[in-house]
Amino acid sequence: MTAPLLDGARRIHLLGICGTGMGALAGLLQARGFTVTGSDENVYPPMSDKLAQWGIHPFSPYAATNLDTARPDLVVVGNVIRAVNAEAVAVRERSLRQASFPETIGALMDAEKKHGVVVAGTHGKTTTTSLLAQILVSAGRDPSLLVGGVPGNFGAGFREGRGSHFVIEGDEYDTAYFDKGPKFLHYRPRTVVFTGAEFDHADIYRDLPHYESAFRKLFALIPADGFAAICTTYANTYAIAADATCRRETYSATQPADWQAADLLLGPQGAAFTATFRGTTWVTAKLPAAGRHNVENALGAIAAARALGLSPAEVAAGLSSFAGVKRRQELRGEASGIAVIDDFAHHPTAVRETIAALKAAYPRRRLWAVFEPRSNTAMRKIHQAEYGHAFADADVAVIVAPSAIAKVPEAERGDAAQLAKDIARSGVECHLAPTPDAAVALIAALARQGDVVAGMSNGGFDGFHEKLLNTLRSRS
After folding, report:
1. pTM of this prediction?
2. Residues 299 and 428 in one domain
């Protein structure tokens, strides 16, 4: 059986193919037997390498003539594409069949009658999605997967599975230039893990109530015989889920909840804890990922796995075999005795929790927290005061001035220089760097053997991590 959107489609062309999610979709579609092509204006590693590995060679730049070569039956339009994009214009002019990235995923799920397992929320989506997929794989359930990162267990952001579950990261960002609703509304949610909601995506949502409304719509889609695991570390989450008709269970690493972590030990090897359900031990687990926030992510995955019928032994085996996710506390290398870590943190809560996790993972080592406020929200002054307190556990902080600040209306812009002053005023040594290259030069001059440098950005950071490693190697 095929879904109507995919009827007769054999050749599929992706606009914005080098994005993390779109690249994963390209790999998944090719694994399903489609001929896949795509275009992008920024074709660079790691996604360009992954696409080449899969035999997909993107067109660049965007041009109407790319469609002549691709000859697509369906064009999938990424949410970075604007209506004036040369290929988007040609698609409309030629009346080619088009769909958004999430709409295409929904069609695949329909075609294969998959049980949608959606992980949504402001924080921890990629890690929780990857954890839950690994638990199911370890238990022999053979799920499909699509996630906005590269899990170490799978080596790509997608997995072609023959089992009944499709585990997917549910993004609240808008879908496409022709569909401004959140992506996750297309994912046929039957089981949901909700990691919490703190205001984000200020370029899309007006304020926190507007942001929360997206998640309310998600809960309205869960059928009555479905399930939701709700993180109550954030006070607003249960109210957001109040109208859901499905069975609900709560979880938290710090607040009262159905699922909690007892006997918690955090250290260089990760975390050891007992997951209790309503006060009774359900599973004792080891998780090779650092930080209390990852224990919380694991609790959400455990609750969902139990609802999907997995045993404590199956869950424990899946957690202990988790290999992490690239760009989430990822050790990129060590040179001159200095460890260089890559992390995606960009919200003040994520920055704070990442720093705390790294302090536990690298005890007695001096920690540099290098932060580029690059996201549309981070560049704004919405969280300016919160960022000022987020670096308290770091030994040294470096704030890198955002290069794209001109895109933000002047009255809404955050102040990187003021942020550096606020952090210094709190007692943490702090430096302001005008560019990533300047940060590399600063750290190479001041860092010493035994230090840990964590570069946090939700973008490419102008190659900061590799440049720093190369500089340190040349110094040694």
Report:
1. 0.86
2. no
